[in-house]
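User: Quick sanity check before I run a bigger batch. Here is a single chain. Can you write out its predicted 3D structure?
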Amino acid sequence: MRILMMKGQSQYGGTRLFADLAAAALARRGHHVDMLDLGETDSAGAAVLQHAQRAQGYGLVFTINIAGEFRDSAGRTLRDLFGAPHVVWHTDYILSKAERVRQTPASTALLLVDPTQADAVRAVYGEDRFAHLGFFPHPAVGEPAADDGSVDEFVARRPIQVLWSGGFQKPETPWKDVAGPARRLLQDAVDLALSVEWMAPHEAVAQVMAARGLDMASPPMRQALETAALVDIEVRTTRRFGFLKAVARTGLPLTIVGAGWEGQLYRFKAATFEGPVEMTRMVELMRRSRVVLNTNGNFGAGSHERPFSAALAGAATFSDHSRYYAQVFAPGEDIELFRWRDLDGGMAQLVALAADPARAFGYARRAKALTLGAHTWDQRIDLVLAAADAVR
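Assistant: Done. Predicted structure follows.
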């Protein structure tokens, strides 16, 4: 099958690398992939139209985060232009892209990194708004690292004891200018979400609205669930900042990667700061690490690429709990998961894991085998092809 992929600009090169890995996996299946790079043009729309004029015969158009809402001046979608199903994988919280989702044609297949985000789309836009909604967990990034033959080799080849990737963020309240009942509703939804281990943001908003006697079946109330994107921001940044302070109190020697940390390293007794890096560099650092920290972006039933990429790089992962990780890994055997409602206990787990290279080595070895068998692009590409078939 001939397949068209598109890639755009990407912070730290993440989605561009995802696109290249997806194309390589499709090529290994015997498909022919054309890559249209919209990140290298000032007019993405014109580039798409030019490509449509000279290239036809596609059986699938696959994009990551971009172009789901594309329409030309005549109102034609990518499916119209190329005569093929369009599959979009969204790696961010889907309701944070509400304007783009509203403009995405119903014939498009949407793949999401947390299954509860599919629930959110159905709750806001209706059960039949899209022809296909699917769960697409992140695949691992990078090539498999050479196996560490022993614990001693694991320690010798991995001078980074604990690696943390992510920009510095303070708690953020994105509705500062909202007043009256709407502000109280949003704050109550945040309080509810923070009072439990994890709750999908749209569920928190829906529960608060229902408690106020609002008719959740009415279109205006359903549309109001889009404000879950604001709840997601505050919950995510609040918990992330709490995690930062808790990790700092452990005194562990960290290597920190990410933007915005200037002036913040005073919080840590022993930290090495690398700054923001491309995802390819992050993979290199994982190969030199024993333990990689992950917070899951408030995707409490879904995924981030870091645990799988760390496993492929031969490192152990310490992460907040996700229903998905608890299903595909064996917590306490090949991954260490902590609970937000017991952050102090989680930090005790982290300190113990960092001090026990034999256990970290065991986690890494088992997680790598699992990832190679089920969580690379070679396996995930089946979900893309199935989504295309569902809307063909």
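The two ends are 13 Å apart (CA to CA).

User: Great, the batch can go ahead then.
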